[in-house]
Amino acid sequence: METLNNGETGLQIRTKINSNFTELLNRSGLIAGLFTTVLPTASIATDKLYAYAGVDNTVIGGITWRNGDFAWYNGTIWTRIPFQALTNYLLKTEADIFDQRIANYSTIEGYYLSPTGVKTSSGVYRIYVYAVTPNDKLRITVKSTGAMATYAFYSDAACTTLIKLGYVKTINEGYTVDETFIVPVGAAYLAIPVYPALAGGFYQNIYTYRSAFSALADFGAKIYGDYKINAIGDSLVAGYFSLLNAAVSPKYSLENLAVSGENSLTISGRIGAIAMKFKNSFTLPSTTATVQVGTLADSGLLSSYDESNVTPLQQGVTSLQVYVDGILCTLSYTSSIYYLARVVAGSAIRTIAAGTFLNPYTSIRNKKANVIHIGTNGGWGDVSTTLIDQINKVIRFSNNENSIVVGLHYRAGFVKANFESLEAAMEKEFGNRFVNVRKYMITNALSDAGLTATGADNTAIAAGLVPPQLLIDGVHFTATGYGLLVALITSRMTLLNMI
Q1: Whole-structure pTM over 0.70, yes or no?
Q2: How does DSSP assign 368-425, residue by residue?
Q3: Domains of the chain, CATH where assigned
């Protein structure tokens, strides 16, 4: 039995799936054309189903999540299984789908339930009590031992007023229970006795029920992006990413698309919105050996926007998976050198022509929303229409107008008039999706944080600049400053029904 357990939301899917997934697909009539692509090996740490559902992708014959779809592992390779195919099978077989695991309400030590449901003293037993709601559909799984009521419903947490008995074990021996039932009218608590010293261990689990369609749709949405928000930017976004992620959790999860030091064109190229391309031709080996494509002085990577040199991955994040001429590769930056290598060895060398695009493996498309905060490090020639055009290309590429555009509070050489001109253009283009960070920081931020302006703060505010009390280096915010910024962003997203 394959168990998918979502640690973020409690989602737990238990399906009647044979451990041999080929047999499962044959029975469901979905085998033809289903196995479409053999997928490369990757570490468990990068496996999305492991992250979301706790499924170990090294289990032979198990279902896991790899490279954008479910997959089946035979001990050597993973084979893609489209999500819809899995959904169809589960719906066809009326699989048992369960949602939240119910938390224990209370524990009664030194008691068990007699075959008639009477709470009876015995120092070797324990009763777990769960709060339940009449007419809810639940599933119970229990392993214990003894001659007793394996579970029963009561109107009180002390288990004195019996509403209904569950399965009764009349022989004093080990047993397991796996049943689905409707909570009877009048019941407020479910009691399960166990023998803690049972050899091999005991267990008791209670799950609420959901339809297969509802549970799978929710799980699929979690994986595919309906619950994901793109956080796109540079070191500023990296600075508030964890705070923003905490603010939108657990309903949504944040995709970290921030790399320090990158300008607007490099960021846009790294996420695929404004494609990067190779400046020179080169030969890609058939093996997974690396080939040099550029250096710190000349990255060998051009922006399709204006043919300028772009330099991704130079701070913090040092590798990026990309498709090059249809081949999945890793672009990396090490010791001032840019390298490219296949993820999986091929059958022949490949000539990569100058001008070939790099298409990022990770897609920003069709997520719940975007938070776009780019431009602090340049890349737009300090021309407002250029930055706006680049941001619009990011929005169009993401296929999502639910995009918050965060304004600049710092730009080398900018004075108050420069900021105000840029902000007016941004507000005209993006309306209430534009968050004017600088204006907020010089008007209400200090008072919102309970801080008193210093002389240096007042001087900066008069010049239209962020108070130094909220900055650590003139560019990046203090923890207080980042907290204020995240509150500003999330309040706007809430106002616009993005979250």
Answers
A1: no
A2: SEEEEE--TT-SSTT-HHHHHHHHHHHHHHHT-S-EEEEPPS--TT--HHHHHHHHHH
A3: 2-95 (no CATH), 106-212 (2.60.120), 225-259+364-495 (3.40.50.1110), 275-360 (no CATH)
